[in-house]
Amino acid sequence: KQEVTQIPAALSVPEGENLVLNCSFTDSAIYNLQWFRQDPGKGLTSLLLIQSSQREQTSGRLNASLDKSSGRSTLYIAASQPGDSATYLCAVSGANSKLTFGKGITLSVRP
Amino acid sequence: DAGITQSPRHKVTETGTPVTLRCHQTENHRYMYWYRQDPGHGLRLIHYSYGVKDTDKGEVSDGYSVSRSKTEDFLLTLESATSSQTSVYFCAISERGARTDTQYFGPGTRLTVL
To answer: What distance in Å separates residue B35's CA from the closest CA in chain A?
Structure first.
């Protein structure tokens, strides 16, 4: 059974800092890995999707990498801003064509 | 934003009563999903649909049923609600499925079962 782990559960950084959020998964047989953002009381918003054949994807200040063989992904946020404060979830799509989610990392960016 | 609405947005009900949650999309996407989100468990898939009248179970399907009679609507029914079904329920849609596509999420329904 696929398990997705995100550690730590919470992170607080000062504004302007570059930061890395980590995600690990137990079964490397995946179709893709996705990063989502969730604001309090809201639904999830897709940030980046990396297909299993890709190594990374970039969108603005966000860069996500995937190392399928080691079961790891990172989400890099450059020059963090208070508006980046949210919970970030990663999810993997496996052989059952369903998404398995991590529990998320709650990020707080202090002004 | 993807055109996904969920109704109701909030509901309080009593143990043993039936409850139906509705997800409506205007994107004509083939795949629709129901998740529940609980502290300490994250998001877990309840049921999903890969077409009209085509549905399958997810990780936590016990106590839930679904129906999809039209492309745009996906209903989640709790036949006899229990306190353990108190949760936030999210609907999601996808054009080509989880193997290739991202999923777009609705705003959620907060359900409290007393």
So the answer is: 10
Of B8, B19, B35, the closest CA to residue B89 belongs to: B35
Tokens 């609705």 sit at which residue? B106
**Interface mutation vs chain A, best among B99, B100, B101, B105, most A CBs within 10 Å:** B99
Query: Smallest Cβ distance to A97: which of B59, B99, B105?
Result: B99
pLDDT tens-digit map of A17-43: 999 999 999 999 999 999 999 999 999
Closest CA to B5 of B70, B91, B102: B91
Q: For residue B24, which of B63, B65, B75, B58 has the smallest C-alpha distance?
A: B75
CA distances from B48 to A12, A18, B44, B68 (A): 36, 37, 11, 10
Are residues A51 and A59 in contact, defined by beta-carbon separation less than 8 angstroms? Answer: no
3-state SS class at B12: strand
